[in-house]
Amino acid sequence: MSLETKLQFDDQFIAKLSQDLQEPAWMLEHRLAAFHKINELPLPKLEKTNLSKWNFDRFTPYTEAAPLQSLSELPEDVQALLFDSNNVLVQKNSSVVYKQLQEELQAKGVIFTDLNTASSKHEDLVKQTFMTLVTKDAHRLAAQHGALATGGIFLYVPRNVEVEIPFQGLFYAEGEQVAIFPHVVIVAEENSRVEFVANFASKGEVALSNAVIEVVAKQNAKVRLATISNMGSSTVDVLYRRANIGRDAEVEYIIADLSEGRVISNSTSHLNESGGIANVKSVALGSGDMRANITSSAYHWGTHTASDVNARAVMKDNASCITNSITKIEKGASKADGQQSSKVLMLSDQARGDSNPILLIDENDVTAGHAASVGRVDANQLYYLMSRGIPRVEAERLVVRGFLDAVVTEIPSDSLRKTIHQLIERKLR
Amino acid sequence: MSNKPNLKLKDIKVEIEGREILKGVNIEIKGGEIHAIMGPNGTGKSTLASALMGHPKYEIISGEAHLNGEDLLEMEVDERARAGLFLAMQYPSEISGVTNSDFLRSAVNAKRGEGNEISLMKFIREMDSKMDVLEMDQKFATRYLNEGFSGGEKKRNEILQMMMLKPGIAILDEIDSGLDIDALKVVAEGVNSMRNDEFGCLIITHYQRLLNYIKPDFVHVFMQGRIVKSGGPELAERLEAEGYDWVKEELGIEDETVGKG
């Protein structure tokens, strides 16, 4: 293998892609600028994870898929990831194949459409945010994403609009060497409220999912962002979430990392103004040879800002997981409160887990705390359960479920909690 | 063979981390019988309980144990339980995130076997009625297993599990320690409610107090890792009145504990 990154696409490929998608000129310019950065930029630097052997380069950059007439055309288990058929957008491989938005929401000015449509139809709105939080200059994967992003979602909620039911995005990849690059932009205007659930799933030897979700929560807005990643063992699953959180606004992340291949799961919150809140509830379940780096960061800039990271990971088989929690309280962010709790449970001798709490504080008048632990299943707990006739495997499952439940039961949405429970149960069998 | 359960131990010797704790225990417990093992602290009573259940830390190095004629020592912990052995533990584990009722239902169903699971309604009814006997608040059903339970609540919960699982042979390991007199009566009532020919019980204790409420058929004195004296209920009464010194004197024992040196 050569050391140089072999790119399976070039300027012409990107120009043609942009033309085929009938994109506005600014999008093509952005793609090309990002493309030219790919080889200049290093891979992201992740605490305690060596990415040098991960496949970020061998994949098919664009795979078109035909539109669906109905959700029932999806494979049953993929379809089951959706808990409602309203306000749903489905991306299969590189194409958005289904989208539905309730009329009453449309009438209120809510926009929920694929990013391609939005980039012409709502050009200014998209431009204001698209790749401004995760920029093409950040690292090689961000540049790659900027060059190749297709499909994706633009979700815009106007001032004072509160949407009760969640919007759902299903990003589904199927086929050998397939790569997907979904980009989601969520803009929640002042006093709005919105919930978005993204499912990532794959079938077959899918190579790569390099996805970005950007969230802007303006003054007093509330955004709940849930991502459930469930990619197969051949897939490198990269997901960067990033939120700019305004005055008194709140962003809540619910993260379920259930992919079986290589995982980079990153969520970053910038608490830019006073009173902003970021909450992260993260569960991970690794099996097989899964390797994961799960990082949640909160940057406090405004006064009275609060962040809380609660992460739990269970590693089976040969799986290995690095969980990083980074809280940075900047000078001037007085009365800020940063809390982290991160626990890893290992179920086999080969499984590995690491939990790194990092608190960086440049302001005196703050509160912060962290708890971290890494351990194996308590032999006494197993003995106790087994002494009541419960077989070892089932006993282990109970302990694991209980361990993850400390976070799962905190998930405020019933349907979401149920979905995550079911996926975890399936993985534990 | 009768349906009466039977646990028979022959010359059981147990080591913990290479140190011999039990030095040959012989006892037979049959359905309908209640045995009490009494003895001062540090004589190996609890070791016997844990070793019989199959705690990984305890190694049975020699001897035989048969439950209803089957070799207990060949079985895994969960198999022993499903074969009808129950141990009410002195220090039950706390398991976060697993509710008491989910846990109990898994246990009941594990014993009943696949295809023969108890219906949810029936399970709830049964648990409710047993909790009433034990004067346990209904909220314990939905609390996490033993998490944040007081000592007394844990003990009641052990007895609740026993009543739900209906073992053939139950070992109660210091079920009375940390209980006030009211709780003790409640726990005793739970145990007494199970008294019949299909239930045999081994009560391990160092207080005679519990035996005022659960009348034993046989009383054994445990010292130096084995049973040194056996008798009827009158033996427990004498121990309560006079302590253990007379037993030591009678048998010429200076130090009743095990594993020193």
From TrEMBL, chain A:
SUPFAM superfamilies: Stabilizer of iron transporter SufD. Pfam families: SUFBD_core, SufBD_N. It comes from the Bacteria. Residues 172-403 form the SUF system FeS cluster assembly SufBD core domain. GO terms for biological process: iron-sulfur cluster assembly. Transmembrane segments: none annotated. InterPro entries: Fe-S_cluster_assembly_SufBD, SUF_FeS_clus_asmbl_SufBD_core, SUF_FeS_clus_asmbl_SufBD_sf, SUF_FeS_clus_asmbl_SufD, SufBD_N. Residues 89-168 form the SUF system FeS cluster assembly SufBD N-terminal domain. Belongs to the iron-sulfur cluster assembly SufBD family. This is Fe-S cluster assembly protein SufD. It comes from Croceifilum oryzae.
From TrEMBL, chain B:
This is Fe-S cluster assembly ATP-binding protein. Residues 7-249 form the ABC transporter domain. The lineage of its organism: Bacteria, Bacillati, Bacillota, Bacilli, Bacillales. PROSITE patterns: ABC_TRANSPORTER_1, ABC_TRANSPORTER_2. The keyword rRNA-binding does not apply. The keyword ATP-binding applies. InterPro entries: AAA+_ATPase, ABC_transporter-like_ATP-bd, ABC_transporter-like_CS, FeS-cluster_ATPase_SufC, P-loop_NTPase. Keywords: ATP-binding, Nucleotide-binding. GO terms for molecular function: ATP binding; ATP hydrolysis activity. Belongs to the ABC transporter superfamily. Ycf16 family. It holds the Pfam family ABC_tran.
